[in-house]
Amino acid sequence: MLKHKIVSILQYVVLTSFALLFLVPLSALILRAFSVPLKGFSIYFFTQVLAKPRNRLAFATGLKISSLAAFITIVTSLMAASALTRKKGGLQDSFLTVILMLSGIPYCTLVIPLYFILFVLHLLDSVCITVLFLAAANVPATVRIFCIYLESLPSEASENARLDGTGTTTVFLRIILPQLMPVLTGAFITTFINSWGNFIIPFMLLSSSDKLPIALAFFQSFSAGDPSLYGYLSAYALLYYIPVIILYLVLRLGVTRLFVVHRLKA
After folding, report:
1. Distance separating alpha carbons of residues 32 and 164, to the nearest angstrom
2. Whether the Cβ atoms of residue 193 and residue 244 lie closer than 8 Å to each other
3. CA 181 to CA 68: how far, in whole Å?
4. Can you tell me whether residue 41 is helix, strand or coil?
5. Are 192 and 247 in contact (CB under 8 A)?
6. Residue 195: partners with Cβ closer than 8 Å, 6 or more residues away
7. Beta carbons within 8 Å of 109's beta carbon, 6+ residues apart
8. What is the sign, positive or negative, of the torsion defined by CA atoms of 203, 234, 68, 83?
9. Mean pLDDT score, 127-131
10. Separation of alpha carbons 100 and 110, rounded Å
11. What are φ and ψ of residue 85, in 5° steps?
12. What are phi and psi of 213, to 5 degrees?
């Protein structure tokens, strides 16, 4: 019993130490962003960041690219997973194995041959191509997750509803979809974060300044290397966090619970 308590205490100590390792630089970032020389605590650096039209455009472009990539990934993956889990054996199992293998490939390496293909086809500097590539890069892993989750769902409720004459669409919307909402929102958030923070793909495929997402715009500001910009860059970095935090709060803590409760009561 005493040994078990000691092991538990050590585990908490290790976890707390790791948490502090993340909190210390984050605290320094927050203090630097709100500390203005000769002014004390102020949001001066935040207003500086948002005052520039280029930064606002970069935020809007990043939100558009990340949201569209996440939406396309979710819709495509859900359709593929539904088709693959409907019938088991043979071609479906082989296809799932291929998807599992593809999900382990570092997709950033694929952007190099894609760059030359798009260069020959004169399709570089296209936001649509960038969105489609980001979506396709996240599809294999998302399909695999959806397949595993769909296979784990109990089939009794769906089968009883079909026996009662309920259509396939109604069964999906009222029975399957409410159970899928946690994994759907989780996959959307993951894909959004992967696209929001992705640097290599937009860097390779986009060149116009008015099409650059926030990751590239932040890198260009950071590469200036001026020590006087540390407060400005700290505020920029904190603003960079905000869309992801808001998305998590809205989807995971808001929409998911409301949707599930509403569907179960209906």
Report:
1. 63
2. yes
3. 18
4. strand
5. yes
6. 65, 66, 69, 70, 134, 138
7. none
8. positive
9. 93
10. 17
11. -85, -10
12. -75, 180
Q: Are 231 and 32 in contact (CB under 8 A)?
A: yes
How far is it, in rounded angstroms, from Cα 206 to Cα 213? 9
* Burial class, 137, CB count within 10 angstroms (exposed 0-12 / middle 13-18 / buried 19+): buried
Instruction: Write out the two tokens for 251.
Output: 């989807």
* Of residues 176, 180, 179, 196, the one with CA closest to residue 248: 196
Tokens of 140: 């294999």
23 pLDDT exceeds 60? yes
DSSP state, residue 211:
G
pTM (global) more than 0.85: no
> pLDDT tier at 165 (50, 70, 90 boundaries)?
low
Percentage of the chain modeled with pLDDT above 90 = 16
Q: Which two tokens stand for residue 5?
A: 């308590």
Rg, C-alpha atoms of the chain:
23
Task: Report how far residue 29's alpha carbon sits from residue 155's, in angstroms, rounded to the nearest whole number.
Answer: 50
As a whole number of angstroms, the distance between CA 231 and CA 44 comes to 9
- Alpha carbon distance 254, 191 (integer Å): 19
pLDDT beyond 90 at 62: yes
C-beta of residue 118 within 8 angstroms of C-beta of residue 124? yes
What span, in angstroms and rounded, lies between the C-alpha atoms of 196 and 243? 9
Strand, coil or helix: 121: helix
The token pair that represents 260 in the structure block: 């599930």
Q: Which two tokens stand for residue 54?
A: 């280029």
> Beta 40-41 vs 35-36: how paired, if at all?
antiparallel
